[in-house]
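The pair is listed for reference:
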Amino acid sequence: MLGAIQDAGSSFLHRILRKGDEALVMSFDSDVDLLSDFTDDRAQLDRAVRKARINIPGGGSLAGNPGPIGGSQHLTGTALYDAIYLACGEKLSSEAGRKAVLIVTDAQDEGSKVRIEEAIEAAQRTDTVIHIILVADPRFGANGGAAKKLAEETGGRVLSANSEKKLNQAFDEISEELRSQYTLGYYPTNSAPDGKFRKVKVATTDHDLKVLTRKGYYAPKG
């Protein structure tokens, strides 16, 4: 489904980006590669999406590819957690505004240096929402539990796509999600600058509605 993923991903970027928005493109398998750094150039992003390949060690050698980031090099496996950790810690940490990571994956991780908890913490510390489109190889299946954990802890969604039609539907739903969010603010009663994780729960009086929000945030550290 790689070709279909590239087509849908490229269309998604063209549809979702507005004036002032930027995106980057990364791929990950045995290592993590930056295919395009932050840009609002849709043509550059489209070329980056088309560069994505499956199971090519040392993908940094692809023409025009800025190359591996974070010194994360592996011999085998799929470095999903490393990719999230690097995207949030090295790329999104210095960015202002709303931030989201959209991952097309089977959520199977093999060979990452960091644990899933560290990947989630990196997203939470940078106020990044993780959305996952779950595409599984029928021979191996998908790690739905890991995908759910990554999304729920950061306020994102998991959508399964086992066909080209469902893949396009999933991209459409994520696009709508990113363009129809509310921002709520409050003053915490605990003002201690201790750097600890503070849990947050948002509920509505209408129990037929489902609230999608991150589980909390890290307080500033004095």
Q: What stands out?
A: The CA atoms of residues 81 and 116 lie 6 Å apart.
